[in-house]
Amino acid sequence: MRKAEIKRKTRETDIEVFVDLDGSGKVDINTGIGFFDHMLTAFGVHSGIDLTVKCDGDLYVDAHHSVEDTGICIGKAFAEALGDKGGIARYGSAYVPMDEALSFCSLDISGRPFLVFSAEFHDDRCGNFDTCLTEEFFRAFAFNSGITLHIREEYGKNDHHIIEAMFKAVAHALKDAMTETGKGVLSTKGVL
User: Under a CB-based contact definition with an 8 Å cutoff, are residues 15 and 55 in contact?
Assistant: First the structure.
């Protein structure tokens, strides 16, 4: 069973995350940041995982701590649920369009965390979400899950569409990479 539950409490956030990588895309998200909840819902639905996120953060400061710490917790949950990463396809890539926007993701569930993020947003915010926090979320997720993650905005004008296409592209790439193959660890080393 590829499931994990992570609880993390700091002076800035109190977060609980549950993932079931073999779920059906059932989500229950509440971070107090409407646009971010919308993105995490899309992430869960499009990756096919069951995802529960409850975050009580210091939103009176801003959304940064809540978004970054949620990325940390989801990343840790993925790492735990994937275990030794054996028996999975390991790699995934996806282009996802959303109206005028197109985003791309390529990733490797490698145990070697890295983020390459390329996007230029047109506005500072989508609702109560700072657009710059998109990169912060994916960095925290990549480094805590042990995933090499490349995300690129191909083009677009509407930041909502660009960011949503990114979350969906990551979700579809993850869905492919997490596919069970029934074989051992996909590495010439024999381990990741």
Answer: yes
CA angle centred on 161, ends 61 and 159, rounded to 5°: 45
CATH of the domain at 52: 3.30.230.40
Instruction: Give the domain range for residue 13.
Output: 3-177
d(CA 158, CA 115): 23
Name the nearest CA neighbour of 88 among 188, 18, 186, 15.
Answer: 186
In a domain, 98, yes or no: yes
The whole-angstrom separation of Cα 151 and Cα 71 is 15
pTM of the full structure: 0.95
Q: CB under 8 Å to 192, separation ≥6 — which residues?
A: 84, 85, 90, 109, 110, 111, 185
Other Cβ atoms less than 10 A from the Cβ of 161: the count is 19
> Which helix (H) or strand (E) element contains residue 8?
strand 3-9
Find the helix packing angle between 159-177 and 133-145, rounded to 10°. Answer: 10
> Would residue 188 count as lying in a domain?
no
**Model pLDDT, residue 41:** 98
187 located within any domain = no
Q: How confident is the model at residue 187 (pLDDT cuts 50, 70, 90)?
A: low
